[in-house]
Structure formats: C-alpha cells, structure tokens
Amino acid sequence: MAELVFQGRGLHGRVVHELGLRIVGGAIAPGEALPIEDELGAELGVSRSVLREAVKVLAGKGLVEVRPKTGTRVRPRRSWHLLDPEVVRWQFEQLPADDDLVELSEVRAAVEPSAARLAAGRRTEADLADIEAHCKRMESAAAEPMAFRAAELDFHAAVVDASHNTMLSHMGAVVRVALSSVPTNGEASVQQGTAGHRAVLDAIDRHDPAAAEKGMRELIDRQRPRTTKEQR
User: Fold this and answer.
1) Minimum mean pLDDT among 85-99, 111-125, 186-200: which range?
2) Of residues 142 and 116, which shows the higher confidence score?
3) Do residues 161 and 204 lie in contact, with contact meaning Cβ atoms separated by under 8 Å?
4) Whole-angstrom Cα distance, residue 128 to residue 158?
5) What is the three-class DSSP state of 7?
6) What is the pLDDT of residue 120?
7) Which residues of 155-176 are buried (b: 16+ CB within 10 A; e: fewer)?
8) What is the pTM of this model?
9) Do 64 and 55 contact (CB within 8 A), yes or no?
C-alpha cells in the first residue's frame, strides 16, 4: 500500500495531503469551491503547477471536480473513493466520528471472519507460520502495548492474506490503514489477551473453517465500538 500514500513525497505530496485532510475533515465542505489558485498557492507556498498536479490527484480520488468558470469544487461524499487507502487515512487520521468507527467495525465484521474461514481451507504452511509468528509476538509483548498493537495488526493482515483472495486482501489492507490511524487504548487491548487469537490460529491450523470464522467474529465483536448509531 505504500506506493498509494503520498505522505513524505516532497512538496507535491505535502499539498495533496494538506488539501485531502481539509476536504475529508470538513474544513472545505461538499459543494464549496477551493480558494483561487493564487490565494491557495500563496498560503501553501507552492507554484500553480504543483497546485494543479495536486488537484488532479484529488480529482482522481473523487474528492473534487474542476469545471470551467466555476473553479474547483468539492464533490459530495458519495462520490469519494472511500476505499482509496489515502482517503481512508485522511478520514481516520483526524478524530474520527462515532459513525466512522461503527462503519469500520462493520467492514471488519464483513471481511475478516470470511477471510478466516477461507484461510482455514486454503492456507499454506508458510501462511500458518506467518500467522503463528505474529501470535507469538503478541504473547511476548504483554508489557508493551504499542508492540502488542503492531503484532495484532500483523496477525489480522496475515489471516486475511492466507485466504488467497486478492479482493479480500485489498479490503483488509484498507482496514489496516484505518486501524493504524485510530488511537487505541493499548493497555486495554493487551488485557484482552491472546487466547482468542490463538483460537483462530488453532482453527486455521486444523483446517476448521467454521471455528476459524466464529473465532474471528468473536475477536472483532469484542473490539466493536458501542455508539449512538447502533441505537437508531
């Protein structure tokens, strides 16, 4: 996914990132025009050519449209490429809304249990070794919440990749971008322990699709946010 993320790619990347954050974060609302080129260029300290190239990238992500005479305007959210990894990162890099967190959990519930079921039937020995290595990393990182979190994300990614379904792997990578950007209570995550992850690993090891799916669903449900959206 790294090739899809512009952060750290010099002046052009900085402008894409800054404008993307403003749009996705609501500082520039749908239907609203971006400031005129001279004004925006002066604010960001870039030339018109850099600004125009950045706008092209944003247009490719569905965030803006450029029209003669009316300028560059932000498109409705329904037009955004919400599965674009960088759009996901912008959405969750700032303080995400409760609804965003619920939707992320719903996507995980749709993707990861199905991937675990497939992984139980399709995994190779190399896949199993990878999943087990990340599980052991989690078990060794009980006193280090940040290391535990990194290992946990790697565990879930390895399970999805073991499904050998490229579309699920893409979806899983997008979910990881979001999860990596969401602040978490690392100590609470560690306290939940690794028993559930070990159960998923064991089910995949013994080629038990139903148990793998059930175990993964239980893991995700434990991490599911309880927000007002679920009460509607």
Assistant:
1) 186-200
2) 116
3) no
4) 9
5) coil
6) 98
7) bbbbbbbbbbbeebbebbbbbb
8) 0.78
9) yes
What pLDDT shows up at residue 232?
47
Q: Where are the domains of the chain?
A: 2-79, 98-225
Radius of gyration for the chain, computed over Cα atoms and rounded to the nearest angstrom:
20
Sign (positive/negative) of CA torsion 34, 37, 40, 46?
positive
Q: Is a pLDDT exceeding 90 seen at residue 160?
A: yes
Q: Does 4 score more than 70 pLDDT? A: no
* Type of residue at 95: L
| Nearest partner of 138 among 177, 206, 191, 181, judged by Cα | 191
Distance in Å from the first CA to the final CA of the chain: 35
| Residue labelled with tokens 């199993």 | 128
CATH topology of domain 2-79: Arc Repressor Mutant, subunit A (1.10.10)
- Alpha helix locations (H) across the chain? 10-24, 37-44, 48-60, 85-93, 98-122, 125-140, 145-161, 166-181, 186-191, 195-205, 209-222
| pLDDT at site 1 | 38
- CATH code, 98-225: 1.20.120.530
Q: What is the pLDDT of residues 64-89, one digit of tens each?
A: 999 887 889 999 999 999 889 899 98
Q: In this structure, what DSSP letter does residue 64 have?
A: E
